Amino acid sequence: MSHESAELLLRGYHAFVAGDLDAIGTMLDPDVAWVAAGESDAILVSRDRVLDVLAERVEEEYHVVVERAIGLTDRVVVSMRFSRIELDLSDERPLQSRRSYLLGRWAAVVHTRDGRVVRVEEHPHLEAALEAAGLEGE
């Protein structure tokens, strides 16, 4: 088990929670590839594009919790849950009583090299990420 890859992921998580995109930028390879669940080709292929998406998520005030991180030699299998409050845009009152909550889960295999994230492969759930990493039944 590699603690280095898991520690890199957790440093990135803490930077995201703190809104420190500069710190996250130092953890991403300039040509990082980000593959969405169900896609075969990377849809985000640069540090700047990934940071743009993460900046949007920080702005949207997502609450993110790491549920599981399994460090391997050159990758981490991770499962997170996220949530945020979505206000009713038709309600102009400052303290709205009508609001909804967005809840979700996110799983991925995060590949690392030389202390940086080089590839993120999203999966529909933790079991699929474990299987992709060769860890079925863990």
Write up what this structure looks like:
It is a single chain. The protein is an alpha+beta fold and 138 residues long. It has a single domain, classed as Roll (Nuclear Transport Factor 2, Chain: A), CATH 3.10.450. 31% of the residues lie in helices and 38% in strands. The protein has four helices and five strands, in the order ααβαββββα. The chain has a five-stranded mixed beta sheet, with helices on both faces. Strand 2 and strand 3 form a beta hairpin. Helix 1 packs antiparallel against helix 2. The longest helix is centred in the first third of the chain and has 16 residues. The two termini are 13 Å apart. 21% of the residues are buried. The mean pLDDT is 88.
List the domain count as a whole number.
1
The chain-level mean pLDDT equals 88
Element string (H = helix, E = strand): HHEHEEEEH
Please give the largest β-sheet. 5 strands, mixed
pLDDT < 50 stretches: none
The N- to C-terminal Cα distance equals 13 Å
* Number of separate strands: 5
Question: What is the level-2 CATH architecture name?
Answer: Roll
For the largest sheet, list the strands in their spatial order: 1-5-4-3-2
Supply the key terms.
5 strands, alpha+beta, globular, 138 residues, Nuclear Transport Factor 2, Chain: A, five-stranded mixed beta sheet
Topology of this structure?
Elements (H helix, E strand, L loop, with lengths): L2 H16 L2 H7 E8 L11 H13 L3 E9 L3 E13 L11 E15 L2 E8 L2 H7 L6
Parallel strand pairs: 1-5
Antiparallel strand pairs: 2-3, 3-4, 4-5
Helix pairs in contact: 1-2
